[in-house]
Amino acid sequence: MEHHPAAARLTEAATSAVQQHGSSGNLLRIVLVVMVLGCALTAWFLLSGYKRKDD
After folding, report:
1. SS3 label, residue 29
2. What is the average per-residue pLDDT within 9-25?
């Protein structure tokens, strides 16, 4: 058994997903939705500290 880096395993998983479903549309859609939700959550977390008053 040979050692595969994590990037190679992810590439193999994405390639097999594309081959099984015929296109990468669903994978790209999922990646974009997760990225947008992550950005929104990060913005909320960072901006929530500004509305607290330091009296």
Report:
1. helix
2. 68
Asked whether 27 and 14 are in contact (CB, 8 A), the reply is yes
pTM: 0.49
Q: In whole angstroms, what is the distance from residue 24 CA to residue 14 CA?
A: 8
Instruction: Please give the Cα distance from 17 to 14 (Å, whole number).
Output: 5
The torsion of the CA quartet 29, 30, 31, 32, rounded to 10 degrees, works out to 50
| Per-residue CA distances from 32 to 1, 3, 13, 25, 49 (Å) | 34, 30, 18, 11, 27
Mean pLDDT for the chain overall: 77
Select, from the ranges 7-11, 21-25, 48-52, the one with the highest average predicted confidence (pLDDT).
Answer: 48-52
